[in-house]
Amino acid sequence: DIQMTQSPYSLSASVGDRVTITCRASRSISTYLNWYQQKPGRAPDLLIYTESNLQSGVPSRFSGSGSGIDFTLTISSLQPEDIATYYCQQSFSLPYTFGQGTKLEI
Amino acid sequence: QVHLQESGPGLVKPSETLSLTCTVSGGSMSNYYWSWIRQPPGKGLEWIGYIYYSGNTDYNPSLKSRVTISVETSKNQFYLQVTSVTAADTAVYYCARVGGGYLPPLDYWGQGILVTVSS
Predict the structure, then answer these.
(1) Is the distance from CB of B85 to CB of B93 less than 8 angstroms?
(2) Does residue A2 contact residue A26 with C-beta atoms inside 8 Å?
(3) What pLDDT, on the 0 to 100 scale, is given for residue A51?
(4) How many angstroms separate the CA atoms of A62 and A3, rounded?
């Protein structure tokens, strides 16, 4: 299985801050890395797929980058509604695996 | 807009079988894979397995011996069974669609259903 490791585990930031979350794969996954946002009591929502493609309806302040084993999710200007837990997931090989999550707080 | 909805018992006794249904609306099941994912309370996400609309399956090796996923496209439903459950199987269970394209993400998710394993 490919292990996905996110950092930090939790993050406190202010409205307007630039926020970066990283995800590292235990071996190369090319660009087949996806990011999800999960708000409390809700199902995860797809934010970014295949490293840098924004899902329809996702604000442009979200962006993704990376390839191989190291990936980054960036929020350019943090908004109150961005408070959530963020998960990376690799779709390169089965079984699909997720990072442990990064909890973002204001 | 594709919509998925999980249904089934919220309480299952230890050693028994957990059975859930996912009903798909707003789109066809054809040409897609359909997946189950679970999340223990306060923890992260675990992929359980998926099924192609035609019936081909693949499972997480960590659960493969206890899991069966099946599909009934005429009803726009797919199903999850987990046998011999223990407290470790207590989780919110989500169904989701595997998107189109090459090595796609999970693009539509159900709201989830909490299943508690307890006597």
Answers:
(1) no
(2) yes
(3) 87
(4) 24
